[in-house]
Design brief:
37% strand, mainly beta, Methylamine Dehydrogenase, Chain H
C-alpha cells in the first residue's frame, strides 16, 4: 500500500481535474456516486463503519447514512473537502492516518483524490442533489476568528455547509459576529465587525445585499415589518452613539440616536412599535418609539453591570437583560413599551450572555460565559430552575432554538481551550469553537459540534 502526503494528494487532484468543467461526472451525482464513490467506501471503510458495526456512529454503507454523520457530527461538508472530517482523518490525523490499526485499509492516493473531488463538486448522491438541499431548517453560527460561518442542519444536527467569507472578497480579519434569519428561512443576515457591513444571504448562501455600518454587533429583527436593527460591537471602544435601522429589502440604513456610549444590547417589541438598547459603559437603557421618534430612558441601579443583551418575550409583556460584570439577570415590564421599569432581579452564573425565550415564553435559556454553564430560568417564578453543564460549553456565547422547540444550540468561543478537539490534525494549538446541542426535554447535552475559531453569534428561524 502506497503512503501519501497531503501535497501529493493536491498534486494528483490537480492532474485529475485539469481541463475538467463543473459538468463532469463528479458534479452530476447519480450513477457516479453509486458506481465510483460507494464502492470505495464498501472496500475500505464499511467493515468498521457499516452494517451491525458502526464505529463512532458513522455508517458508510450508503449516501444517506454518510450524510447523517457520526455521533459527534458531520463526516463531510458539501463543496468543502478541506474542512470535511472524513478527508482530514485520512490526510492530517496525528500521529498516523486513519485507520492506523489497519494500514491495509488506508485509502490510496487515487481513491482519496476521487472522494475529495466528489465532495468539492457538492457530494451529490444518487438523486443528483447535494446533501441538505431543499427547504430544510438551518441554524447559523458565526466564527469570528477565521471569517467563516457554519450552517447547521437542524434535522440531523450536523454542519451542512461552511460559508468562507475569504472566498467572497473579505479578509480573514473580517470578524463575522451575529446572525438573524427570516421566519421562512428565505434569507439570513450577518454582521462583520471589522469589515463594517451587514450582509444579506439567500438560501444558497450567496450574498444578495449589504449595508455599511461602523463596527456592527448584534442584530434584532422586527416581527411586524421589514425592519432589521443593528447595534455596535462590544469590541468597539468609542463607537457612534446610534443604532441602525435597516430596510431588509433595500438594505438601506437609518441611524437612531441613543444618547449614551457603547450601545450594544438590542431588542424589538413584538408589535414593532419600539426598539430597545442598553449601554455597555453606563447603567442606562432606552426605548425608542420608531414612528413618533420619541425616546424614554431607564436607569439601572447598582454598580456598572455592562448589559450584554436584551430579549422580549413572545407575548411582548416582559423584557429581560443580562449583566456581564455582576452576573445579574433583569426583568423589565415591557407592557407599556415607552416605560419599562425593572420588576425583578435574580442572580445567575458568571457573565450571562445572550438570553432566548422558549417558544411558549415559559422558559429563558442563557449561556454563562465565565461559568461555562447554561441557566434555565422559570419565567413565572423568576428563578433558575436548572443549570446545564458539561463538555462543549466552552465560553458559551450565542443561543438558538429549533422551530419545533426540541433543540437548544449554544455556541462557544473556546478561546480559553476549555474544550479540546477530539482529533489532532496537526494544526497547532488553536482550539475549535463549539456548538453544544441540548435536548430541551431532558436538558442534557446530546452532541458537541466542532466549528470554526471563536464561534460567537448564532440564530435560527424565529418562532413568530
Amino acid at each position: 500500500m502506497k503512503t501519501y502526503s497531503i501535497q501529493s494528494v493536491v498534486l494528483l487532484l490537480a492532474v485529475l481535474t485539469a481541463g475538467c468543467s463543473t459538468s463532469s461526472s463528479t458534479s452530476n451525482g447519480g450513477d457516479y456516486y453509486s458506481s465510483t464513490i460507494q464502492p470505495i467506501f464498501d472496500a475500505k471503510c464499511s467493515s468498521c463503519h457499516g452494517g451491525a458495526k458502526t464505529e463512532a456512529g458513522l455508517n458508510l454503507t450508503s449516501w444517506s447514512t454518510l450524510t447523517k454523520g457520526s455521533s459527534a457530527g458531520e463526516a463531510i461538508i458539501a463543496y468543502n473537502s478541506a474542512h470535511s472530517t472524513l478527508v482530514k482523518m485520512a490526510t492530517k490525523l496525528q500521529p498516523a492516518v486513519h485507520p492506523a490499526s489497519q494500514p491495509s485499509s488506508v485509502l490510496s492516493e487515487s481513491e482519496l483524490a476521487t472522494i475529495t473531488a466528489w465532495i468539492d463538486a457538492g457530494a451529490k448522491g444518487p438523486d443528483g442533489l447535494a446533501p441538505f438541499s431543499g427547504n430544510r431548517e438551518f441554524v447559523y453560527v458565526t466564527n469570528q476568528g477565521d471569517a467563516t460561518i457554519n450552517v447547521i442542519d437542524v434535522e440531523e444536527n450536523v454542519v451542512a455547509r461552511l460559508v468562507d467569507l475569504t472566498k467572497m472578497g473579505f479578509d480573514a480579519g473580517a470578524k463575522p459576529h451575529h446572525v438573524a434569519v427570516e421566519p421562512d428561512g428565505s434569507f439570513w443576515y450577518a454582521t462583520l465587525i471589522s469589515a463594517g457591513v451587514i450582509l444579506k444571504f439567500n438560501r444558497n448562501n450567496e450574498i444578495v445585499g449589504r449595508a455599511s455600518f461602523e463596527v456592527p454587533g448584534l442584530l434584532s429583527m422586527d416581527p411586524s415589518s421589514n425592519r432589521l436593527f443593528v447595534g455596535r460591537s462590544m469590541a468597539a471602544v468609542n463607537p457612534p452613539q446610534r443604532i441602525g435601522m435597516i430596510d431588509r429589502t433595500t438594505m438601506s440604513v437609518e441611524e437612531l440616536e441613543v444618547f449614551f456610549p457603547r450601545p450594544h444590547a438590542l431588542a424589538v417589541a413584538s408589535n414593532g412599535k419600539n426598539v430597545y438598547s442598553a449601554s455597555l459603559a453606563e447603567n442606562k437603557a432606552i426605548s425608542i418609539d420608531i414612528d413618533q421618534e420619541e425616546s424614554t430612558f431607564e436607569d439601572i441601579p447598582g454598580p456598572i453591570h455592562t448589559i450584554v443583551d436584551l430579549e422580549v418575550s413572545p407575548d411582548g409583556k416582559i423584557m429581560v437583560g443580562t449583566a456581564q460584570l455582576t452576573g445579574k439577570f433583569f426583568f423589565f415590564d415591557a407592557t407599556d413599551q415607552a416605560n419599562f421599569p425593572i420588576t425583578d432581579v435574580i442572580d445567575v452564573n458568571a457573565a450571562p450572555w445572550h438570553p432566548i425565550f422558549s417558544h411558549d415564553g415559559s422558559k429563558i435559556y442563557v449561556a454563562n460565559k465565565m461559568a461555562q454553564t447554561v441557566s434555565i430560568i422559570d419565567v413565572a417564578k423568576k428563578s433558575v430552575e436548572a443549570v446545564v453543564e458539561g463538555n462543549g460549553l466552552a465560553q458559551p456565547h450565542g443561543a438558538a432554538i429549533s422551530s419545533d422547540g426540541k433543540w437548544l444550540y449554544i455556541s462557544g468561543n473556546n478561546l480559553n481551550a476549555a474544550y479540546v478537539s477530539r482529533h489532532n490534525f496537526g494544526e497547532g494549538t488553536q482550539n475549535p469553537g463549539t456548538v453544544t446541542v441540548i435536548d430541551l426535554k431532558t436538558n442534557k447535552i446530546i452532541k458537541v459540534l466542532e466549528v470554526g475559531l471563536y464561534a460567537s453569534g448564532s440564530a435560527g428561524r424565529p418562532s413568530w
